[in-house]
Amino acid sequence: MAETTSGKVTTREGAPAGGGLPSPRAKAPGTRLSVNLRQSGIYVAFALIIVLFSVLTGGELLSPQNISNIMVQNSYVLILSIGMILIIIAGHIDLSVGSVVALCGAIAAVLMVEMDTPWPLALLVTLVAGALIGAWQGYWIAYFGIPAFIVTLAGMLVFRALTLTVLGNQGIGPFPDEVRTLSNGFLPGYLGNIGLGPLGGADLFTLLLGLAAVAGTVGTQWRARQGRIGYRQQVDALPLFALKMAAVAVVVMTVVVQLARFKNLPWVLLLLALLVLGYTLLTNRAVFGRHIYAIGGNVHAASLSGINVKSVTFWIFVNMGVLSALAGIIFAGRLNQAGPTAGNGFELDAIAAAFIGGAAVQGGVGKVVGAITGGLIMAVINNGMSLIGAPSERVMLFKGLVLLAAVAFDIWAKRRAGASAG
Question: pTM value?
Answer without folding.
Answer: 0.84
